[in-house]
Amino acid sequence: MHLKTFRTAPPYPTSAACPAVHLPTTIMPPLPAEQATAVYTSPLPPPSDSKIFTYQLPEAISDTTRLGILKEVVEKLQADVNAYLTERMEEEKQAELAAGKKGQVREEEEEEENYGEEVVEED
């Protein structure tokens, strides 16, 4: 990084009440390509999984365009994470069925079907 300070007289008039202010100018190297990243980490103890979802953002665009693209990318990241979690739930359900926990899986399915509804059990 290079720091450049100007020490010449200002090109405009100054007074004692408003002295010239010399601000350093910093020249920054070009930024790497921007990306939006979402990281899912399972709350289960190891061996648990984690997954990284990444989208590259276009370079040299206006702030307004960047915000629009960022909104779209966030929606895509949410959809990707949801699809991944749905896939993992199906895999876990199949593994439970294979392990002989069929009754528990059926109870969970009924609970999902009746979520938010009052269930009257027949005697």
UniProtKB/TrEMBL annotation:
Keywords from UniProt, A to Z, are: Activator, Chromosome, Nucleus, Telomere, Transcription, Transcription regulation, tRNA processing
State a GO cellular component annotated for this protein: chromosome, telomeric region
**What is annotated about its quaternary structure and interactions?**
Component of the EKC/KEOPS complex composed of at least BUD32, CGI121, GON7, KAE1 and PCC1; the whole complex dimerizes.
Q: Where in the cell is it found?
A: Chromosome, Telomere; Nucleus
Q: Where is this region: Disordered?
A: 91-123
Q: Where is the composition biased (Acidic residues)?
A: 107-123
The family classification in the record reads: Belongs to the GON7 family.
Q: What does this protein do?
A: Component of the EKC/KEOPS complex that is required for the formation of a threonylcarbamoyl group on adenosine at position 37 (t(6)A37) in tRNAs that read codons beginning with adenine. The complex is probably involved in the transfer of the threonylcarbamoyl moiety of threonylcarbamoyl-AMP (TC-AMP) to the N6 group of A37. GON7 likely plays a supporting role to the catalytic subunit KAE1 in the complex. The EKC/KEOPS complex also promotes both telomere uncapping and telomere elongation. The complex is required for efficient recruitment of transcriptional coactivators.
- One Pfam family from the UniProt entry? Gon7
| GO terms of biological process kind | tRNA processing
What protein name is recorded for this chain? EKC/KEOPS complex subunit GON7
Q: Where is the signal peptide?
A: none
Organism name: Ascodesmis nigricans
